[in-house]
């Protein structure tokens, strides 16, 4: 799928959603989880961070300089890291008894509503809605489970390559392996991972669809007044 600077600065939420979907949101949820501290995960979820980051990215998309999908992912990860830092600051302020800064749902449209004016514009993309994020969470669980079933020496390589999207040479340097050894482990691990993930997603399809449908009903219901 080909993208251009027009997609990066999308005028419609539909075009923006197409771009976000190309980044593999379920895998990014696992990346976010890995970047959050254990203490922070007790108070905020990766889904909270993801939704907040998407809202900020949509609002600030005009500042994004398009240099390809990889660079766009890096730009979004910078926003994600900032949201994680803000959440950590929020938690720290709460523990000190001070007034915490505004964070997460205090900035977003209430109740998953995507209509009406907000700090992010009159309309926000479907990629930020609870229903879409619930579906991505379900898929992320399948990815996590499929990775967990790999032998340890293969799991780490597959995770770094497919989830973190690190280049082979960087993985080799981090794990003190030769590039050829990394390629061999990745090839073997990726085959096992893909086969297991296909099985898991097939078995979870009905459940994922049910979760998505239930969340969609919540999204479309009138907000509590």
Descriptive keywords:
Arc Repressor Mutant, subunit A; 2 domains; 225 residues; mainly alpha; 10 helices
Provide a descriptive summary of the structure in words.
The protein has helices at residues 5-8, 13-21, 25-35, 38-41, 46-59, 69-96, 130-148, 152-163, 168-175, 179-220. It has 225 residues and is mainly α. The radius of gyration is 19 Å and the shape is globular. The model is unreliable at 104-119 (pLDDT under 50). Helix content is 67%, strand content 0%. The chain folds into 2 domains: 1-126, no CATH class; 129-225, Orthogonal Bundle (Arc Repressor Mutant, subunit A). It is built from 10 helices and no strands.
Concise synopsis of the structure shown:
The chain is built from ten helices and no strands.
Work out the count of structural domains: 2
Radius of gyration: 19 Å
| Total helical segments | 10
Distance between the termini: 43 Å
Order of helices and strands: HHHHHHHHHH
Report low-confidence residues grouped into runs of 5 or more.
104-119
Assign an overall shape: globular
Mean pLDDT: 80
Number of E-type strands = 0
Helix-strand category: mainly alpha
Main beta sheet strand tally, sense and closure: none
Strand content: under 5%
Helix content: 55-70%
